[in-house]
Design brief:
Blueprint: E1 2-5, H1 25-34, E2 43-47, E3 52-54, E4 59-70, E5 78-80, E6 85-101, E7 105-106, E8 137-138, E9 158-162, H2 168-171, E10 174-177, E11 185-189, E12 203-204, E13 209-211, E14 219-221, E15 228-229, E16 233-237, H3 242-246, E17 253-258, H4 261-276
Parallel strand pairs: 9-17
Antiparallel strand pairs: 1-2, 2-6, 3-6, 4-5, 4-6, 7-8, 9-16, 10-11, 10-17, 11-14, 12-15, 13-14, 13-16
């Protein structure tokens, strides 16, 4: 499950196309800054396990995100020589790792984005995950002086949410990420939540919405979420915690904490300050 991802294609929900893009956009942005790219340059997103990538020419690369077994240090910009291989094994902590290359991955843009949307087969390399023998081109990137090593992006097992009413039931329990979670949504297991039983009209749904289906087990809608839905939405993950959701893996346990809009903005500002301290 290694795909080409950038920051996605916002603005097409009215056509039924979700934004997609990196599941942990913060790590992708940081990795691109490490290798001298624009924040939204296309990179490779690996999920739980990586691969072996051979370079035909000299390049500057960086691995960010989850702690993966790898042949180069994580969160460090490094030169690779022609014929060299970067090997990525399994995730030791977290779920997704990003391989960023100076210049960025060069694939045809679909609706302005290189991101792979697996459910619809849009973008990336033929709309699919990579397989053995695939050849990817990189765009020309300006040579840079290496920026050294970064501390990993801050993460937490507490996911902050905003809610239209008191989300006490959601926030008072611990939840386990289920095996059938994916880029469309993360299914959680815990004490069944009460849900609205009356008729609900289908309506637009945003990234990070927490839905409650009939079994009472919440679902966090994620980067390839459906654009409309009729299940009750009891809360929404704040923007600053999307990257933490992207690093959740099956059997991880997580708790929610309700915050105000002002607190959510403060957390987002602190995160952006951390990111732009890298420039």
């Amino acid at each position: 499950m290694t795909t080409v991802q950038d920051l996605g294609r916002p603005g097409y929900a009215h056509l039924g196309i979700s934004t997609s893009g990196a599941a942990d956009a913060l790590s992708l942005r940081a990795g691109n800054l490490l290798v001298g790219n624009a924040e939204g340059a296309a990179a490779l997103e690996m999920t739980l396990a990586g691969g072996t990538f051979e370079f035909e020419s000299r390049a500057i690369v960086a691995l960010t995100g989850a702690d993966f077994e790898a042949s180069i240090p994580m969160w460090t910009a490094a030169w690779v020589r022609p014929g060299a291989q970067v090997r990525c094994g399994h995730a030791r902590l977290g779920a997704r790792c990003y391989l960023c290359v100076n210049g960025g991955i060069d694939v045809p843009l679909v609706l302005g984005s290189a991101s792979t949307h697996l459910l619809t087969g849009l973008g990336g390399l033929e709309g699919r995950a990579l397989k053995r023998g695939d050849i990817l081109q990189t765009m020309w990137g300006r040579p840079i002086g290496l920026r050294g090593t970064l501390s990993p992006a801050p993460a937490s097992t507490i996911i902050h949410v905003t809610a239209p009413i008191n989300a006490h039931a959601l926030c008072s329990a611990a939840w386990e990420v289920q095996e059938d979670s994916d880029r469309m949504g993360l299914r959680l297991r815990g004490p069944a939540l009460d849900r609205h039983t009356g008729h609900m009209l289908t309506e637009g749904v945003p990234l990070g919405a927490v839905q409650v289906p009939p079994d009472g087990q919440p679902i966090i809608l994620f980067v390839e979420h459906q654009t409309t839905g009729g299940y009750p939405k009891i809360a929404n993950v704040i923007s600053a915690d999307f990257h933490a959701v992207g690093q959740l893996r099956p059997r991880d346990r997580v708790r929610f904490e309700q915050v105000s809009i002002d607190a959510a903005l403060t957390l987002l500002e602190a995160q952006e300050e951390w990111l732009h301290s890298l420039v």
